[in-house]
Amino acid sequence: MRFSKYLAFTFLALGGVIAMPSAFSADVGIGAFLDSEDFLVGERVAFYVSGFNREATPRVVDVHVGVIAPNGTIYEYPNWNAALQPWLAAAPLSANLRFPATLIGNLDTFPGGLQPGRYRFATALTEPGTLNLLALSIVPFKVTSGAESRIVGGATLGFGKNVSSTFPAVLAAVGNFSRVDADVAAMQAKFRQQTPTIDHCLFHQIPGTLEALVGAANVSVLDAGADLSLGSPSNGGVTLSRVATGGGGIAYGVSPNPPVGFYRAGEVYTLAGSGGPDVPAFSVSVTAPSAVTVTQPDLSTLSGIDSNQDFVLRWQGNDGVGEIKVELMGGTADDPDAIVCRFADDGEGIVPASLLAELRDALNANVSPVGNLPGFVVSGSGVSIGPGGVTLTVSRLNFDFFNNDDEDTSLFTIDQTLATEVAIQ
Hints:
By secondary structure, the chain is mostly beta strands. It has helices spanning about 5-15, 185-195, 210-215, 355-365; strands at about 30-35, 40, 45-55, 60-70, 75, 90-95, 95-105, 115-125, 135-145, 150-160, 170-180, 200-205, 220, 230, 235-245, 250-255, 270-275, 280-285, 295, 305, 310-315, 325-330, 335-345, 350, 365-370, 375-380, 380-385, 390-400, 410-425. The strands form 5 sheets. Strands 10, 11, 12, 13, 14, 15, 16, 17, 18, 20, 22, 23, 28 and 29 form a 14-stranded mixed sheet that branches. Strands 2, 4, 5, 6, 8 and 9 form a 6-stranded mixed sheet that branches. Strand 28 (about 390-400) and strand 29 (about 410-425) form a beta hairpin.
């Protein structure tokens, strides 16, 4: 099947769909990657591209790399033309090509500069000399001025399975909204320093809660109004009920959890809210990613990771299109010690031994036994497994922004996650 509509219309129609639609070619593909999804005005936005050709013979395609501006205009790299002229015309894709995620350029010369708003970085393959789409990848990103007040939060549909336990897989849908009044630019700088570029890992110690990051006095709970709705065209819907929590908090969730059958990979789910005193009405759609299947090591029997050698992880990949997130998290949410990795979805990632040793030493320096409970330790402000115990998670996720205000950064995220508990030895 070929798409004969204008590329611009297709980009806009699929703006909230991160996974490649099945109607496109399964033999060739292209990936899009950024260093982050949230940037400040004037900050460099570097971009990366991957590609593949599964066919046993070479293929000729046009390669499009561009940015969809907040007003819907598409600008194509490298001269930022608005005429849908490809970056590479009649480009040969070698037989059995696997082109890894590679730094191509940045958006420093984007017309008028990147102003506050919601953007999309997009890459596409088309038949030569036409706008008949063969493959498409889109990554949403946000640019803000760094104003010291913003709405954060949103909602998540998460499918999780702990492979080291007998507990069944769980599907959860939860949401919350907060206003942060703090030095956003400084907060962004902290995150940027500890966010890995694609195909890299970093040692990470940034608190996982807003209150620990900016101080509880700088975080206020927001009211997004009545219940939120979440559903897909062929799989029905659920309601995220508004619930008052302790200390004046407000949360949204489904209780009991939705049946796991509510989650279908490749399905487009729409989250909508009618708005409330603090959050305007919204509607946003995201595609559910496919399940992660790890082939090495066997996570169900993995009990420890040797910090004296690289940790090699293999999974059923997607030819390098899209991302896999890997975390080794110890300590507590307020006081974490962790390794965070971003890998192109090509089926293999390597966590360096040097980072494993750094995590091991940090965990061992921050623990003490808990009474007569073997295997548990005090770490930071809470209790976790140990000594050297971490939770290993491997995730695919898709997301999109749904704020009306340029400074806000609420997200709707859908993820598929495998988890297990291991010791860093």
